[in-house]
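Cross-posting from the modeling subforum.

Setting up a comparison between two proteins and wanted a second pair of eyes on the formatting. Protein 1 (sequence, then structure tokens):
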Amino acid sequence: MHLEAGFSFTFAFMEITHEKACLCALNKIFGFEPKIALALISHLGSAAGVFELKAKEVDQMLGPHSKYRGCISGGSVEQAHAELESLSGRGIRFCGWGEDSYPPLLKECEDAPVGLYVRSGSDPGELWKRRRFIAVVGTRDISPYGREWCERLVRRLSEVPMKDRPVIVSGLALGTDICAHRTALSCGLPTIAVMATGPDDIYPSRHRGAAAEICRSEGSALVTDYPPGTAPLAIHFLRRNRIIAGLSEATVLIESKIKGGGMMTARLADSYNREVFALPGRIDDLRSQGCNYLIRNKTAVSISSVDDFLKELGISRRTGSAGRETDEQKLKRLYAGTAEEDRISMMSRVLLAIRNDKGITVEEVAAAVGLEYSTTAQIINLLETDGLIITDLLQRCFINLNYRP
């Protein structure tokens, strides 16, 4: 389903320089191996420099049997220039590597695309400025539990102070993705949809209305690194996931099977040294096995309450809200008249050790805070009895994020 009808909005004219056309050509040639193109650009100083190479020089750099050998030609640049002229008239911009309109967070990734096609009512150069980007991804087969939490998290993110209000990034797919996009739109949050097709297509076609709304919404956009005419093949979705992770400073996995696409996005985010969060679920629910696995292996932070999720992100809960109690203040209030100040100080140190190292054992806590094992065990037993922490069968300790005094 193509985008022509129903997508009428104005867009600034795109200046098509020779360098931009060369970047577009390289993006098409090296789409699945962008590292090669970026290495060539870095070595030669520009994308145009790649197309100035003689055949012998191309052979020296890529090898005489490279599958890309015949693609590096003036004809490829001419085709890219014609394509960009056509897209510009339809409100689609191409943002190439090194240009001001290219997302700075994505540029940090070693496998970033050479360029992105962007369809938006906002100028691409403004899309990536002074904003936080949070990816919300997960299974297409989202459960009512997953949908509720997806909506709840995105809604709360729309209630934080304006300076912390993020852009929601997802993949426009069924289930979790479209839930995240639509919730963001309904709450006034910008949202970026990273597509696995060319910029002239929408998949699935039932999301065409949502795609049109994204294009009309300020600060929102449809984004892809695939050229026009690209079909939604399975392999294209896998390549798409790295852009979702690369655009975002944090990725939230709502639900996923062990081998789901959401799991790949979360793992990519972790490989980019970005924060990863996961919604825990029932151990017998296939849709939660991926999340539970990431939490168990400390790849992802468990989401047990919205407020603690915001705290982990470093986002205030809402404008004008009072500051959160420190552990020591909370303990003084809870144990006023029943515990000595020294005892409360030890309890505070134990809580801090557990907060800083999820899953730390009782023995490890004792070593971390410099207390006898027996004293530490007594304090942990008291804190667990009063609901501030939880422990498992292996004596691993966790802050009880659902605790409410």
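Protein 2 (same layout):
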Amino acid sequence: MASSSAAEFAARLDRLPTNRYVWRLITLISLGACFELYDLFLTAYIIPGLAKAGMFTPESLGAFALLAPLKVAGPGTFVFALFAGLWVGTLLFGWVADAFGRRTIFTFSLLWYSAATLVMAFQTSGFGIDLWRFIAGIGIGIELVTIDTYVSELVPRHERGRAFAYSQFVSFCAVPVVAFLAFMFGPENWRWVVVIGAIGAIFIWWLRLGLPESPRWLARHGRLAEAEAVVVNIETKAIAEVGVLPPPGLTIEEEGQGTFAEIWQPPYAKRAIVLSIFNFFQTFGYYGFAAWVPTLLIAKGIHVTTSLEYAFIIAIANPFGPLLGMLIADQMERKWQIVCAAICIGTFGLLFAHQSGTTTLIVLGVLITLSNNWLSYSFHNYQAEVFPTRIRARAVGFVYSWSRLSAALSGLAIGIFLGVGGVGAVFGFIAFAMAVVVVVIGGFGPATRGLALEAIAH
């Protein structure tokens, strides 16, 4: 009965026409994600200030200086600390949203991030900054997994692509904000940039108190009356806006207990392997540019202050990538969007490496950023679609953890290639990583466009 009722709730959600209430819910979730993106992209814009303040000397780093034999030193420790925290959050705690609910963990992880980031802002040593960066990263890792599962379960199947693109549009509005604040405050006032993000997250937490729990999750945990109340409320709001609703489609029952072992049963095992390989390599392209823009510009002979200005101009493009993506998000198969975005990142990156003119660098930087946005909203949608509700958060957490691991290593990789062969070597490596993405997703990823989550899971 519980399984059948869960399927009926899913069918009722999937038949809903476009309505303002569901998009309002997605907006609230996405506003929370704003501060996750704010914090993720904080790295590129405050590292110059941290370095100028002497935070990356061996004496200031303390125990983190022990990473030097691994070629992780100076600013690289800050990048490593963040992504090591993200790796722990996604791999070890991705399951908590499956166990305790999307809404509960969504709120808890945001408060965790806000508190840890606020503490980090008042540290006076590189060791303290890296330590609290690691702790904040755990909260962000949990949050990112929960957001993907939350959005996918609330949105009708015919507009999941647009919903993820819109969600990332809202989220990526934080990127030019943090770039602008870093440019306006200057490198020496990096603490203000950190504090603003932490305080803003508390305000968004308050806004999200009115969010409902995922009815799919409630039904899977036998809380049918609560699931019914949530679905009826959504249906009532939709009827008030659009009139009579179409009848629900066929129901597809979802079986299984929701254990980690299920990830390694057909057809999920192949998907988990494909997405793990994908996630490990996509990060080198995505964060290899996004987190290193000022540094790459400096390596091309541009002054540190000017590089922050150029980085801000490039960062303005971030919200527009997902906004443009809404035009094709549900018109083009998801896996091919990922493939096309990876090809664009590799191509524009190689061109960027061999340019020196200001205008050309900015234009290519914008094109790389737009391609990164396309890749981001597509794969966040994709990896949440291919696993069933009962294991969605823990499966997404597992496959996504590989991107956090590679991101922790990205500082090492980019630093090595930058030192050995300059910007050209960096983008040669990124092009290779994008080629792996093309082969893995294009050759082995399943199709998902227009299908119910429960249908994809079979």
